[in-house]
Specification:
Layout: H1 10-25, H2 33-40, E1 45-51, E2 57-62, H3 73-81, H4 84-92, E3 98-99, H5 100-103, H6 106-111, H7 113-121, E4 126-133, E5 139-146, H8 155-194, E6 198-203, E7 207-211, H9 213-221, E8 225-228, E9 231-234, H10 237-254, E10 264-269, E11 272-282, E12 295-301, H11 310-317, H12 321-331, H13 336-343, H14 347-361, H15 366-374
Length: about 375
Amino acid sequence: MGGLSRFDSLNDFADLIGLFYDAALDAGLWQGLSGRIAEAVGATSAVLKVHEPGGAVALLEITENMVVDDDLQDWATHWHSRDLWVQRSISHGLSRIVTDTELVSDEERRTTDFYGEWLRHLDIHHMIGAAFPAGGTAIGVLGIHRPQGASPFDREDRRRVGLLLPHLQRALQLGRHMTHLSHAESIALESLDAVDMGVMIIAAGAQVVHANGVAEAMLERSTELVCRNGRMAARDAPLQSRLSAVLQAALATAAGDPQGAEGLIRIDRSDRSSWTLSVTPLRPRSPALFWQRPLALILMRDPEFPPYRIDALRMLFNFTRMEAVVAAHLVAGGAPVDIARSLHIGLGTVRTHLKQILLKTGTSRQAEAVLVVSRSVAASQIS
């Protein structure tokens, strides 16, 4: 073995395999695993990378002795993307363990720059590894190396790599899948933040899983509803009873036990317009996994809450600040007389602003101006 040590027990392999799956859930845990992989087969260096369609290469993890100086990064990228061992490993079949002796002749070692320039710089001579599916059209690559003075990789080394490779492949595929799910979740939550109504996702016990910006702002100014200790509640006992019944029904339906309770709530306010809530079940994906839980989706609308950023309206339509404020109230359903009262300005002033709003939106009627503003991207810019 040229003085190089290998793992001595199956427990060492079990521990390393466990680390693969830990890294699938937390990409930061890949760091340092290349050294453990090299140690498993008595090698001096190892690389784990992903080749994407079009030639892009992502280095997931390499041992420290494969790191090149900053001024050589372009050179390293060139050779990683033109890795002859990878190209030939793929031709031998994905997930098949191969060694350098199967991929290159002695003549090619002497005449090809990949071996004479790149690998010589890294003190790499012997290789064992595989190319394998990494999810989608990406190809994962495991390469484990020894220098020229060490022994070639043998049958025992193949057995050891064979113990690791299926788990490494699966962990990498899971990691990429989890990353895609994380991105999809982020996009979904950002999309909820962009809609022009309050949106809340509620779990059992009225636990708030997510609330978008409009919902948070509505709850902050509400005297009827509150988020207390991460749970949604009503300040009034009859409303709390109604809210609890509707939430329980939606959650039961999401869990597979359809309930007949009505999913709409109107909250009347003596001195202001009523606002409304719609509560619907969010069912787990089928087939449901044991850690998934039923959820309820709450949509909230308050006609007196204009979910438009004033600066966005000013930028889009060249409104003055007060014109933008009036436009936001008009879109929210406010009548000129109510807007005047709310903003503590005269009705004539509101009408003057309305004339400018019509002019700047290129419309001739209030309803047309409201339509233009409500369909603009300002509707997704939550204040």
